[in-house]
């Protein structure tokens, strides 16, 4: 990201009351299920994220960062915990692995490679704008990881490996109208 000219500013979703002033936001993977109560209680940060989104500033939320944006997290024992409620849907933890392996996301500016690894599933009314695929395969309408978009937020279980295609990273962190997803969409 620095090689692309970005100035990186870090913050803690658990401790900080606001997103730092920035043009775009990356919410990387993590384990929100281990901190769901604390994340939910950080309403000041949630409100700051909502303001960032309302301003139309890009958000790339992958895996755990994406999970925290949804309404509710249900743990593997069935207990529900509210989350930030910035995307509609319920994240359900499983005791078994839901997905694992290399993936790729075709964008207009190139093929972004990465991987998937998660123990949860998501039920959401959002319709995927694209899907990832295994390496050297075309995306299928019902396979791979969904890429959801709502306003300025793009979210997926897909963990992007930024060095695989810098031009695609620029596209990913550009305003949503500037992004053109290549490949099959539902």
Q: How would you describe what is shown here?
A:
A hairpin with a 5-residue loop joins strand 3 and strand 4 (80-82). The model is unreliable at 179-186 (pLDDT under 50). The protein is 16% helix and 31% strand. The protein has helices at residues 36-41, 43-54, 64-67, 166-172; strands at residues 25-27, 59-62, 70-74, 80-82, 87-93, 99-107, 110-118, 120-123, 130-131, 146-150, 153-156, 159-160. It has a single domain, classed as Rossmann fold (3-Layer(aba) Sandwich), CATH 3.40.50. The protein is built from four helices and twelve strands; from the N terminus they run E-H-H-E-H-E-E-E-E-E-E-E-E-E-E-H. With 186 residues, the chain is α/β, with parallel strands linked by helices. Strands 1-2-11-10-9 form a five-stranded mixed beta sheet.
User: How many β-strand runs?
Assistant: 12
- Strands of the widest sheet, in order across it, are 1-2-11-10-9
Q: Could you say what the CATH architecture is?
A: 3-Layer(aba) Sandwich
**Main beta sheet strand tally, sense and closure:** 5 strands, mixed
Would you identify the regions where 5 or more consecutive residues have pLDDT less than 50? 179-186
Helix content: 10-25%
What is the CA-CA span between the terminal residues? Answer: 30 Å
Counting helices, strands and paired strands, the structural category is: alpha/beta
* Strand residues, percent: 25-35%
Number of helices: 4
Mean of all residue-level pLDDT scores? 91
Per the CATH scheme, the topology name is Rossmann fold
What's the number of domains? 1
Shape: globular
Q: In CATH's first tier, which class applies?
A: Alpha Beta
**Order of SSEs:** EHHEHEEEEEEEEEEH
Q: What is the radius of gyration computed over CA atoms, rounded to a whole number of angstroms?
A: 16 Å
């Amino acid at each position: 990201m620095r090689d692309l000219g970005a100035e990186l500013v870090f913050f803690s979703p658990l401790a900080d009351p606001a997103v730092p002033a920035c043009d775009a936001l990356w919410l990387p993977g993590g384990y929100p299920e281990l901190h769901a109560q604390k994340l939910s209680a950080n309403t000041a940060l949630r409100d700051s994220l909502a303001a960032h989104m309302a301003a139309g500033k890009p958000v790339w939320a992958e895996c755990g960062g994406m999970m925290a944006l949804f309404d509710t997290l249900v743990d593997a024992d069935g207990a529900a915990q509210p989350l930030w409620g910035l995307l509609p849907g319920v994240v359900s933890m499983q005791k078994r692995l839901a997905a694992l392996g290399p993936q790729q996301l075709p964008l207009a500016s190139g093929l972004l490679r990465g991987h998937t690894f998660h123990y949860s599933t998501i039920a959401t009314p959002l319709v995927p704008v694209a899907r990832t695929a295994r390496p050297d395969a075309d995306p299928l309408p019902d396979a791979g990881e969904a890429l959801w978009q709502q306003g300025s937020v793009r979210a997926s279980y897909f963990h992007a490996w930024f060095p695989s295609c810098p031009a695609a990273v620029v596209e990913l962190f550009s305003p949503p109208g500037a992004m053109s997803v290549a490949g099959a969409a539902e």
